[in-house]
Specification:
Blueprint (H helix, E strand, L loop, with lengths): L1 H11 L11 E2 L1 H7 L2 E3 L14 E11 L4 E11 L3 E11 L11 E6 L4 E2 L6 E3 L2 E5 L5 E6 L6 E8 L4 E3 L4 E4 L8 E19 L3 E4 L2 E10 L3 H4 L2 E8 L3 E9 L8 E9 L2 E6 L2 E10 L6 E13 L5 E9 L5 E4 H4 L2 H7 L8 E5 L5 E7 L5 E13 L2
Length: 383
């Protein structure tokens, strides 16, 4: 009966029954024995499920010019009936004369989408996301929107990782036959080359640093998570990544956190023993969500040599870059995935503090290292 109730909720978009925390098999269980594994080419294949899912490859960009950007391909399936793909671009502009220009946002439906035989490359009319032969770099090209013509190459400079053995958390009352999944795979430290051509600004050079994330939600998004916190920190020496979500009460409001610290050529630590905290917030009167104004992220783990690793990143967020009303901005297919649930009002708050924050990192008995860098962070509230 639980499976039947879940399927009804999956198709109708209604709220799920209360299954309790035992109905999620968090990736934290895998991480007890295997904190993380380095990504191999097969780990980057598109799953392209034929049932309800949202799968995405997203590249976060931090240009030397001060621009912050995102390019993203989304593959979505609604109940095995309808598949849609979308290409999104977003550009945040540096502050000039005390003013921050409105971000550029482009979201375009894709036609005739498909994959190569290995399911490593994605293509559609006017759009392609393809790895190089040794899967150490991706080229992202899109000419489907004259307002944002994308030509970027993102090359990893450290190994990629997934938490546990496969990066997956499973949802369902029968662990042997789960009805949902959540997975994240990271390239936390990348070199970016190329440009995004816009109508207003011409070619914007995005040479700088970047992050690549391949994510899969093998169920309706609001069934898997009620809120999210994301951190992408880049400094001259280190990159720190963190993705935390809290399930709805149907799965016991369980917190799942995956993340890690890397530098060029090396994963310093990665796993699930991390925390994301909004240390200060204010009520957004429009949405009634507690909009964060300050954050604290911590990472704990072991180095490859078995040394204890700890890191902390904390500070004020400053004025937000944007507040995204998901139901107003996202494509219709996502509205179909989220629609039908009373009380669902998804908003994304996006930040990059104007003052550089400092990562404090300690490895074993060594001296604490402190290095300033750029943080891009998101806080998402769904239901």
């Amino acid at each position: 009966m639980n499976w039947l109730k879940q399927q009804v909720a999956n198709v109708a978009g209604t709220q799920e029954p209360i299954y309790g925390p035992s109905a999620i098999q968090s990736v934290a269980k895998q991480a007890q024995a295997t904190p993380y594994t380095e990504l191999q080419p097969d780990d980057l294949k598109w799953t392209a499920m034929e049932s309800t899912c949202v799968e995405t490859q997203v590249f976060y960009l931090m240009a030397d010019s001060g621009h912050i950007g995102m390019v993203q391909v989304i593959y979505s399936n609604v109940a095995g009936i309808h598949t849609t793909c979308q290409f999104n671009t977003k550009i945040f502009y540096p502050t000039k004369d005390g003013k921050t220009p409105t971000p550029l946002w482009c979201s375009d439906a894709l036609d005739n989408q498909g994959f190569d035989e290995h399911k490593l490359s994605f293509y559609a009319d006017g759009c392609a996301v393809t790895p190089n032969p040794d899967t150490t770099a991706y080229t992202v090209k899109s000419a489907i929107n004259e307002s944002s013509i994308v030509n970027l190459t993102v090359t990893r400079t450290s190994p990629g990782f997934q938490v546990g053995t496969n990066g997956k958390s499973f949802f369902g009352t029968d662990p042997q036959h789960p009805w949902g999944t959540m997975r994240h795979a990271f390239w936390p430290r990348c070199h970016v080359q190329g440009s995004i051509i816009t109508k207003e600004d011409g070619a914007l050079d995005f040479q700088g640093r970047g992050v690549f994330i391949h994510a899969l939600q093998g169920m309706k998004p609001h069934h898997a998570a009620a809120k999210w916190t994301f951190a992408d920190f880049q400094s001259p020496t280190y990159s720190a990544i963190m993705m935390e979500y809290t399930t709805p009460p149907s799965y016991g409001s369980t917190v799942v956190n995956v993340g890690g610290i890397v530098k060029d050529g090396e994963i310093i630590c990665a796993g699930v023993t991390n925390t994301a905290e909004h240390t200060a917030s204010k009520e957004d009167k429009e949405t009634e969500w507690p909009e964060p104004t300050a954050v604290k992220f911590t990472w704990r783990g072991k180095s490859k040599g078995g040394e204890d690793v700890s890191a902390e990143l904390a500070g004020g967020l400053g004025q937000r870059l944007d507040k995204v009303d998901v139901m107003a901005k996202v494509p219709g297919f996502v509205k179909t995935l989220v629609g039908g649930l009373v009380g669902t009002k998804p908003y994304i708050y996006q930040y990059s503090p104007p003052q550089n924050l400092a990562l404090k990192l300690k490895i074993g008995d060594g001296e604490e290292k402190v290095e300033e860098g750029i943080l891009f962070s998101e806080a998402t509230f769904i239901c």
